[in-house]
Specification:
This protein has helices at 19-24, 48-63, 145-158, 163-166, 194-206; strands at 68-70, 80-85, 88-100, 104-109, 117-124, 126-132, 138-144, 173-179, 185-191. By secondary structure, the chain is an alpha+beta fold. Strands 1-2-3-6-7 form a five-stranded antiparallel β-sheet, sandwiched between helices. A four-stranded antiparallel β-sheet has the order 4-5-8-9. A hairpin with a 5-residue loop joins strand 6 (126-132) and strand 7. It binds zinc ion. Zinc ion binds at residues 111-113, 153, 157.
Length: 214
């Protein structure tokens, strides 16, 4: 087994979505939707609709029990991501990596856009990111460990990159819950490949009837 946190990236949240969060939450785009593969565009101007988009992003992230979300994951190809970690929330508009450590670390990640899949991803342990907040103020953030991993995962989304592209060889798995005859739930992991994951999700997304939101 590869080393790294056994905690699944998108399932560690304990914060229950509030009804307010649910009402603003938007469906999360799944692998197979081309918007996830297109580089997102920089935000030119902070308008009221950008503020509303950020609220929807937080609501969608919380409703899905995630720890990070990029705007293209809810269908808006703009360079904005949100995250939460250790009781703090983060909004990054037009983020850019200023520096990253040579030292890297493997960790297990999942993705709200690729449910039931996890991968081990090798990433720099520390990095410095420059971004703008929702009031347009420039700031820099020095992140390490889990927060550094979350931010790198979300910044990848803005460039159309996903964990299946970065998975350490042999580390990609389906994570499925099986129910036995007595009704006991059991989590099973089944090895897979980036090609298989891409094919399964692409077929599922393209077979979905237009306008039929499940
Ligand atoms: Zn993701």
């Amino acid at each position: 087994m590869p080393k790294g946190s056994s905690k699944c990236f998108d399932r560690d949240g304990v914060i229950k979505p509030t009804s307010k969060a649910r009402s603003k939450a938007r469906p999360i785009k799944l692998l197979g939707d081309p918007i996830l593969r297109a580089p997102a565009k920089p935000v030119e101007k902070l308008t009221k609709s950008i503020g509303e988009l950020i609220d929807q992003m937080f609501a969608s992230m919380e409703a899905a029990n995630g720890v990070g979300l990029a705007a293209n994951q809810i269908g808006v190809p703009k360079r904005i991501c949100v995250a939460r970690h250790a009781g703090q929330t983060y909004v990054l508009i037009n983020p850019e990596v200023m520096w990253e450590s040579d030292e890297t670390e493997e960790g297990v990640e999942g993705c709200l856009s690729i449910p039931n899949v996890q991968a081990v991803v090798l990433r720099p342990i520390r990095l410095r990111v420059m971004a703008y907040d929702r009031d347009g103020n420039r700031f820099e953030i020095d992140a390490e460990g889990m927060l550094a991993r979350i931010l790198q995962h979300e910044l990848d989304h803005l460039d159309g990159k996903l964990i299946i592209d970065r998975a350490v060889e042999g580390s990609l798995h389906w994570v499925l819950t099986q129910v036995d005859d007595e009704g006991n739930e059991r989590v099973v992991t089944i090895p897979t490949t980036p090609e298989e994951v891409e094919r399964v999700f692409t077929e599922a997304v393209s077979s979905k009837m237009p306008g039929h939101d499940g």
